[in-house]
């Protein structure tokens, strides 16, 4: 009997049909919390850096004389003299006073992209924002590399992250279960979880790291081809921002799912590794479910 089998049998109560299984290895848990903390600081300091020039472009050029901006957050004065914050996306402007473009107290507003509560430091300070951003970027890259190598060696990547053909076939059922908030607590991730984790870990994380590197002048000298891959510095900046927005969306859904699926069991698993599964279904129950 291995140590893990021994702990599993001791945590599983006699007469209780559910089982406690070892779901997350140390490397998965430590890297998960390292990137969760690093991403928090990267987000706030990244928005501080964005605020230094709150417009995104496609291509290599930037500035008033070019017509290649895709997103911008600015304060503008209307014909009646009233100043408001506006966010312009692909040429369409939306009034976003109070949050984007113009925020803070009405009698002393700040004309800035993201508001003070969303940036680090809260006041405009590009150089401190850059120091914080680059410091946590290396923690994030290190955590990602440790996760990738250890998951490759332990088989976590192939077994738990890359969806199998059976997972793809079961996707419609998995989607309908999620929409009806019917969660199955198995020892393994379901197909939807695998797809979303693979999207984050194998697409968004590498792209946000590479577009970050593509914006660094040092890297431009060492790997000039990297800028060409992403279609120029300004496009790399826009893709970097888009990845950030996708990670924020993932984070909100991720937290919602953790709470919907049972926060104590889920949190225990990602902190200690141990996870309580559903009781095994008996044959009559299975039949009932199929005929329902
Ligand atoms: C930006 C922050 C975060 C990102 C990008 C993220 C991403 C991920 C990823 C990719 C996994 C799968 C890891 C693997 O199996 O190798 C995971 C698992 C998990 N995360 Fe997060 N996470 C974040 C923050 C959080 C937070 C704040 C919580 C808790 C409130 C949390 C709770 C969990 C839990 C419970 C699991 C395991 C799910 C399960 O076993 O079904 N995560 N997360």
CATH class of the largest domain: Mainly Alpha
Strand order, main sheet: write it out: 2-3-4-5
Q: Could you say how many structural domains there are in total?
A: 2
- Overall geometry: elongated
Output the radius of gyration: 24 Å
Helical amount:
55-70%
Summarize the structure.
The protein is an alpha+beta fold and 292 residues long.
Description of the molecule:
It contains 12 helices and 6 strands. The protein has 292 residues and is α+β, with helices and mostly antiparallel strands. The chain has a 4-stranded antiparallel β-sheet. Strands 1-6 form a two-stranded antiparallel ribbon. Helix 7 (191-214) packs antiparallel against helix 10 (233-261) and helix 10 packs across helix 11 (263-272). The longest helix is centred in the middle third of the chain and has 29 residues, at 126-154. It starts with a helix and ends with a helix. The protein binds protoporphyrin IX containing FE (HEM). Protoporphyrin IX containing FE binds next to helix 2, helix 7, helix 10 and helix 11.
């Amino acid at each position: 009997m291995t140590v893990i089998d021994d702990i599993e049998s001791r945590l599983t109560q006699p007469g209780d049909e559910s089982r406690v299984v070892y779901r997350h290895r140390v490397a998965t848990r430590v890297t998960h919390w390292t990137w969760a903390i690093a991403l928090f600081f990267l987000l706030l300091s990244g928005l501080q850096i964005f605020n230094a020039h709150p417009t995104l472009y496609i291509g290599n050029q930037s500035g008033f004389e070019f017509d290649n901006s895709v997103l911008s957050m600015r304060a503008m004065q209307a014909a009646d003299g009233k100043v408001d914050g506006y966010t312009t996306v692909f040429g369409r402007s939306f009034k976003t006073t109070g949050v984007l473009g113009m925020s803070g107290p009405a009698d002393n507003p700040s004309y800035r992209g993201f508001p003070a509560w969303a940036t680090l430091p809260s006041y405009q300070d590009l150089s401190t924002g850059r120091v914080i951003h680059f410091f946590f970027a290396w923690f994030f890259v290190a955590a990602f590399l440790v996760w990738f190598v250890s998951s490759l060696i332990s088989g976590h990547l192939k077994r738990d992250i890359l969806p199998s053909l059976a997972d793809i076939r079961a996707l419609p059922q998995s989607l309908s279960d999620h929409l009806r908030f019917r969660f199955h607590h198995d020892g393994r991730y379901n197909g939807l979880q695998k797809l979303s984790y693979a999207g984050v870990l194998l697409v968004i994380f590498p792209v946000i790291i590479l577009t970050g590197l593509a914006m660094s002048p040092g890297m431009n000298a060492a790997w000039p081809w990297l800028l060409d891959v992403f279609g120029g510095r300004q496009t790399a900046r826009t893709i970097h921002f888009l990845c950030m927005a996708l990670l924020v969306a993932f984070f909100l859904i991720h937290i919602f799912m953790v709470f919907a699926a049972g926060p104590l069991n889920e949190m225990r698993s990602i902190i200690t590794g141990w996870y309580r599964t559903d009781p095994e279904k008996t044959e009559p129950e299975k039949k009932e479910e199929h005929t329902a």
